[in-house]
Amino acid sequence: MAAAGSSMLYSLFLFVATLSLQEMFRAKLASSELFTILGGFTSSIVFLTLLTFIGNYQETIGVKTGWGAVIIAEAVALIAACTVHRVCITTCFLFSTGLLYEVNKLSGMTDIKAKRKRMFT
């Protein structure tokens, strides 16, 4: 597993790159129904990378806000989605909800593995 500092830098780079590419190709993403759905998906990737950055930043400084990081990351992703097309807002929210569910599931699995490892060592 990557350290919090390097993961924070990678996620910040991916956040900036994804957001920049989304804004560069916003006319193409708004041109058809399928590209509009793709625009919502790219905005949900913006959500995931920003959530990773905020979580790693909080871990680095020793503060945790819980749902605050999720709300901030989702707000930024929805604002990014609304610059492309209004349907992107809905698809971004739906994709982000699915990604958040999967991240929560993965987090729980790694937490259980870490507890078992500590128990048997």
From TrEMBL:
| Keyword hit for tRNA processing | no
Name under which the protein is recorded: Dolichyl-diphosphooligosaccharide--protein glycosyltransferase subunit KCP2
Parts of the chain that traverse the membrane: 6-22, 34-55, 67-95
> How does it sit in the bilayer?
Multi-pass membrane protein
Q: Where in the cell is it found?
A: Membrane
Q: Please name the InterPro entries in this protein's record.
A: KRTCAP2
Pfam families (UniProt xref): Keratin_assoc
Which keywords does UniProt give here? Membrane, Transmembrane, Transmembrane helix
Q: Which GO terms describe its cellular component?
A: membrane
What does the similarity note say?
Belongs to the KRTCAP2 family.
